[in-house]
Amino acid sequence: QVSADLAAIVERRRMMESRLEVVVSEVAQLVPLPESDGDIDRLRGIQKRAEDAIEMVSGHVSTLRNRQREMRSELGDANRELSEAESRREELEKSTRTLGDRLAILDVELAELAVRYEAVCEGLRRDADATPEQAKAVQPPQLSDGIDPRQRLESLQADLRRMGPINPLAAQEYAEIAAEADELESQLADLDESRQELRTVISALDAKMGALFMDAFEEISQFFAENFSLVFPGGAGRLSLTHPNDPLATGVEVEAQPAGKKVGRLSLLSGGERSLAALAFLFAVFRARPSPFYVLDEVEAALDDANLHRFLRLIDTLRKSVQLVVITHQQQTMEAADVLYGVTMEPGESSMVLSKRMRETVDSRR
């Protein structure tokens, strides 16, 4: 319709242009001034036709303007309709895509249902030797308690869903785990038995060690008292246990009281007295548990001459039963030795090791 209207407007415009051309050509012919009444009448006729043409053109222009407004209104409506059609087309395309996706999903579900149907049919043929039609024709069983079989089936299916996926290897895994559990229980029983045996052995060892410790303590305590009386004539020294009823956890207290002194702690003794008390305890251990030989390194360095004589008395208690190697710089200790070993260096010479038997020296002096 719009194309037809445009064609009509173009045709009217062409007609008006041709009429104007006729009027213009007639006017051009009358450019010279009229010379007679006939020319004037002809000019009036031309004027009348020009006015008619102008009136007709004005009418056509007004009509064209009205038609233009109508066409603009129609064009706006057409544009709105076109926009609505485009929106509708987009909605339809979106719906088409959604329906296509849904159709694809349905196709997948249909394929899955077909596979499941084939699996069910195969299961019926394998387990019940029946076709799907025969299975559908079978009447549902009647339960003894009056429960609807379908409800019972739905309840069992709900229980299966709550149980989750079933592991077909569960029985085999359970047998393996049960075997491992039995093996572990057997090992645990063996361990419990071994633990009981170890506890019995430990108890026996604790009792034996406690007895040995008490025997050793009594013997060392006796020797300590003897050694203390040697280094501190008239004094008293003894050993006591902090926990006599628990020999394996007890501590040992050393009590030393030289003659003429009343002290409660060893820290109140002088340095030499503490050294002698320690040596008395050490030599008591040596006498209680003797070894083939002992090495003493500068043990009497802090003793004066009087205390050194007392130390030599301790040496005499072990001289006949063990060998003593004493490293010393004290002359009195050297004189009490049986053999001396030393290192010397003559002027202009290298170091030289010397040994000397003191008994031979004493005999030569006699």
Offer a quick outline of the entry.
The chain is built from nine helices and six strands.
How would you portray this structure in words?
α7 links the parallel β3 and β4. The protein contains nine helices and six strands. The model has no long low-confidence stretch (mean pLDDT 80). It is mostly helical. The longest helix is centred in the first third of the chain and has 92 residues. A two-stranded antiparallel sheet has the order 1-2. Helices cover 68% and strands 10% of the residues. α5 packs across α6.
Coarse morphology: elongated
Biggest sheet character: 2 strands, antiparallel
Note the beta-strand portion: 5-15%
Q: Give the structural class.
A: mainly alpha
Distance between the termini: 166 Å
Strand order of the largest sheet: 1-2
How many helices in DSSP terms? Answer: 9
Give, in order, the helices and strands: HHHHHEEHEHEHEEH
The Rg value, from CA coordinates, equals: 68 Å
Mean pLDDT: 80
Number of strands: 6
Q: Could you estimate the helical fraction of the residues in percent?
A: 55-70%
Low-confidence stretches: none
